[in-house]
Amino acid sequence: GQNIDQPTEMTATEGAIVQINCTYQTSGFNGLFWYQQHAGEAPTFLSYNVLDGLEEKGRFSSFLSRSKGYSYLLLKELQMKDSASYLCAVGGSYNTDKLIFGTGTRLQVFP
Amino acid sequence: NAGVTQTPKFRILKIGQSMTLQCTQDMNHNYMYWYRQDPGMGLKLIYYSVGAGITDKGEVPNGYNVSRSTTEDFPLRLELAAPSQTSVYFCASSLDRVTNEQFFGPGTRLTVL
User: Fold this and answer.
1) B5 inside 8 A of chain A by CB
2) Distance CA B78, CA B19 (A)
3) Per-residue pLDDT tens digits for A41-74
4) B40 touches A at CB < 8 Å
5) Where in A6-103 does DSSP place strands (E)?
6) B83 to chain A, closest Cα gap in Å
């Protein structure tokens, strides 16, 4: 079956670091994606991992371990505008035509 | 580039009515998708298309139909609307199937009463 788990909600303080975890069990694997979605808006692409390891992009980094079915999104130097939902998605078939999305983690950043 | 555009932004339907949600992209992407997002939930794939004339079902296709006559347009048809179809609908497109970075439209908020 297909299953993606993320924490429902997290809170953090401005300037801090937060790690959002994602575990997955899918019938295939062709990449793991992170999307950001502000309330009432459309998701926007953040990162893509297909090989094990860490991908860094500015204040955001994403890590993947395929053997453990695990990924995390690391947000550094948190800003108020980072308050949003973060969606983990997996390309579960032999290609990435279809993405399976988790339910998302709602992050609230406080001053 | 406008990216992915969707119309209408909001719509209220009565049970049993039909409507078409429009989606257009101007990035010459072959891949297009329709998702629905219920409150507090993730995105569920309804239908997708890998090119003009080719469509396939996603996770939750029942009650919906699609067509893809051009690269740019990918309308979603709701026949006999039901309250369970109350949701926010997002259209997305992507350039390639390898990285599949999807670009989303602003969404259509649909209420069925």
Assistant:
1) no
2) 5
3) 999 999 999 899 999 999 999 999 999 999 999 9
4) yes
5) 9-13, 18-25, 32-37, 44-49, 53-57, 60-65, 70-75, 84-91, 99-101
6) 21
Which structure tokens are listed for A108?
A: 């609230």
Nearest CA in chain B to A5: B42
Over the range B3-36, which residues count as b (16 or more CB within 10 Å of their CB) and which as e? Answer: ebebeeeebebeeeeebebbbbbeeebbbbbbbb
pLDDT, tens digit, for every residue of A70-83? 999 999 999 999 99
- Which residues, in sequence order, are bridge partners of residue A64? A53, A71
pLDDT at site A94: 53
CB atoms within 10 A of CB A62: 23
Q: Distance of CA B42 to CAs A47, A53, B11, B90, Å?
A: 17, 25, 21, 12
Question: Which residue numbers in chain B have pLDDT < 50?
Answer: none
